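Q: what does this look like with arginine bound?
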Amino acid sequence: MKKKSLVLLLALAMIFTFALSACGGGGSSEESSDAGEETAVLKVVTEATFAPFESTEDGDDTIIGFDPDMMAAIAEDQGLELEWVNMEFDSLIPALQSDQGDIICAGMNKLAGDRAEKVDFGDTYFESDLMLLVTSDSDLTGIDAVTSDMKLASQIGTTGGDMVQEMQDEGKIAAGVVLNQWTDCYLQLQNGDVQGVIVDKPVGEAYLNAHSDIAKFVGDSFGDHEEFAFAVQKGNTELLDKLNAGLAELKENGTYEELVAKWFS
Ligand code: ARG
């Protein structure tokens, strides 16, 4: 009798071990095997209406821009495999907190609010300020000329979005309109639904390159001095060290400058 229960116990243990290995570990990264070598595919989350950092072209889900090119070069340098997931900007940090993503790369300002309490940011890869974008026929001369009957738009969860909501709370504007996509902000500006869009300067410049006949910047930059950085889940220093090392290498070997010239000239 004893021998039988021992054999049964061993069989159960083997089945359990097999089941466990077939399910794989936790975490958002999937395994990719190549000649038996297991390489975790890291999930990069972003919001892709933020050209020239990240955007998609009509009818194509492929994300293009400075950020994908920079991260691809870092991944190559550090032997990482990446896949990109496009989602709403205010879902990016929760995605890392809930293990639904490994890296944020989205022109995200690492100095803003309590972001650095929730995720770990890497070294700065771009510096920027906010600007006020208006229609080309607007009489506005800058953010200080905005009146309390006006509406300003920006993207939800961003520094611009926080600013328009703050201006509404302070009664400086009638409404701070926060929208999921930058493309919707530009549309509301052109439709006359809002009188201005608060946007990151390099992104507004990219929009003006294609729409200088219908829009313009007014006033100086807000001097909020944003520092864009990628971010990883809190405590993932191993991955963060790799990303920082890759960025340093790009800056050292000239790739960074080439990408800046490609996307911001
Ligand atoms: N730099 C601003 C921020 O950190 C806007 C970022 C928006 N990025 C995007 N991919 N939509 O809040």
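The longest helix spans residues 2-23. Residues 46-47, 50, 53-54, 89, 106-109, 112, 155, 158-159, 200, 226 surround arginine (CB under 6 Å).
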